[in-house]
Amino acid sequence: MALPPLVEPAAELSVDEIRRYSRHLIIPDVGMDGQKRLKNAKVLAVGAGGLGSPTLMYLAAAGVGTLGIIDFDTVDESNLQRQIIHGVSDVGTPKAESAARSIAEINPLVNVVIHNTALDRDNVKEIFSQYDLIVDGTDNFATRYMVNDAAVLLGKPYVWGSIYRFDGQASVFWEEHGPCYRCLYPEPPPPGMVPSCAEGGVLGVLCASIGSIQVNEAIKLITGIGEPLVGGLMVYDALEMSYRKIKVRKDPNCALCGENPTVTDLLEDYEDFCGAVSDEAQEAVTGSTITARELKEWQDSGKDVFLVDVREPAEWEINRIPGAVLIPKGEILSGEALAKFPQDRQIVLHCKSGVRSAEALAAIKAAGFKDAVHVQGGIVSWVNTVDPSLPSY
Ligand SMILES: [Zn+2]
C-alpha cells in the first residue's frame, strides 16, 4: 500500500545542495521534489547507540533537514564495537553531542537538535510533537512501549528496529494506516526472559543491517515513494542470511489502538509495566540481599560461603569473582543443578547486575534453601566497589 508523502517539499534547493545530492536528484522517483521533502523533514532518533548510529549517519547524508537526537548516556569503550557514529576521542562525552559532531562532519547542512536527556513520560509527547517522524533505536522494553504509546496518541508514524545477537527485526508503526507495536506484542516478555544486548551481546554489523532498513523506510515515508513497511514485520537472520517479511494486522482488541482501548494516555510507570524482575524474584530478594562489599567481608572473615555465578559460560570467560563456581541460571530454574547445592553452607548467588540472580534465588529458596542470598548489582558492583582491576563488560 503506497502512502502520500509525509512532508511537504521545501521551497528550493541551494546550489550546494544540488551538487551534494545529485545522485539522489537523478533517480526519477526521488528527484527535486523528493529531495526538497527530505530537506523539509524533521526526524527524531530515539537513542544514539547501535541502531541510532547508522540511522543518524545515513539520514544526515541523505539530506534530512532537521535531525533530533535524544540520548542521556555517555560514550563508553564497549560501545565502539557497533556504535560507529562515536570514536575513541568521544569516550566519556554525551552520546547526543558526540553524534551531533559526527553529523556536522558528514553534512553541515543538517540542523541538529540535541536532547541530552532521558526520554520519559513527562517529556516524550512534547519532544515527539516537534518532529514529523520518529526512528526508534531503543534497547529496552519500557522505552519501546512508551515510544509506541506516545506515537499512537500523537498520531505520528515511527520506524522501529530491534537487534539481538544475530537476529534483527524492523517495522513501521502508524496507527492511522496499520498496526501499532502493541498489536504485534500486546505484553512485554516476562522479566528475565529476554536478555538485553548488554547481557546477551549483539553482532556489531547487525546494527547496520537493521539501521539501513530503518533509514530506507524513513526516506520512503518522507518522500511518499514505494511501499512502506506498514503492516509488515521484517525478520533478519544473519547466520542463515535470510530476510522474511511477515504480515502484521491491526488487532481489534489492541489495548491502545483497538476498538475498545483500555490505554488512553501514557502509563504512569513503564518500568513497572515491563517489570525489571518478576514478582517471585522481588519477593525472594527481600531481606535476602547482600552488597558486593558484604560478600568480600564474609569471604575475608572465613565464613563458609558457597558462591554461585549464575551467568553464562561466555561471561564467565570474561571475568569472575574469586571462589565462585559457575552454574548458569537455566540449570537452576530447570532443577537439574539443584543437587550441586550443599545443605550446610551459606549459599550466595550472583550474576552480572542482579536480575538473573534474583530469578535464580526465587528457585533456590523454593527448593528449600531458605537462607540463600544474592548480591545486589552482581559482578558489576563487585568490580566497582571491591576489585576495579577485574575486566568489565
Ligand atoms: Zn495497536
Provide a descriptive summary of the structure in words.
This protein has 393 residues and is α/β, with parallel strands linked by helices. It has helices at residues 15-20, 22-25, 31-40, 52-62, 95-106, 124-128, 141-154, 181-184, 197-200, 206-223, 270-274, 279-285, 292-300, 313-318, 329-333, 355-366, 378-385; strands at 42-46, 66-70, 111-115, 133-136, 158-164, 167-173, 232-237, 242-247, 289-290, 305-309, 325-326, 346-350, 373-375. Helix 4 packs parallel to helix 5 (95-106). The protein is elongated and about 80 Å long. 41% of the residues are buried. The structure holds zinc ion (ZN). Zinc ion (ZN) binds next to helix 8. Residues 179-180, 182-183, 251, 254, 256-257 line the site of zinc ion. Residues 301-391 form the Rhodanese domain. It is found in: Membrane.
